Amino acid sequence: MIESTQNILIKKMADGILSTESGLVQYAKSKGFLTVQRFLCWILLRCLMSKKQFPLDYADAVKILPGIMPKIIRRIAGLTDKPVIAGGRADNEQKVLIQ
Fold it and tell me: Could you state, in order of their start, the residue ranges of all structural domains in the chain?
């Protein structure tokens, strides 16, 4: 799967990439593409709890799934100067309102 994505980037068939794979994001950034690093909330929480850094060096923006956890998203947004995008399915307005 990574190989086919790299081929698309090499052929300049896309303007950027959105991926959970930091190696692919790094590769795309090195080729001058717009990059969005996608994370699952529980992975980011584990990184935060264990004081690990999450790899944002090559991302232009961060996408967090699911986007129905406003307090967690606010906390993560406070740790980076990169734009934070909330994604995923929300079945009602209350799940996405920041309180």
Answer: 2-95
In this structure, whether the domain defined by 2-95 belongs to CATH 3.60.110.10 is answered with no
Q: pLDDT digit string (tens) for 37-52?
A: 888 877 777 766 665 6
As a whole number of angstroms, the distance between CA 67 and CA 64 comes to 6
Task: Answer whether 12's CB lies under 8 Å from 34's CB.
Answer: no
CB environment 10-37: b (16+ within 10 A), e (fewer)? eeeeeebbbbeebebbebbbeeebebbb
Tokens 């944002």 sit on residue: 56
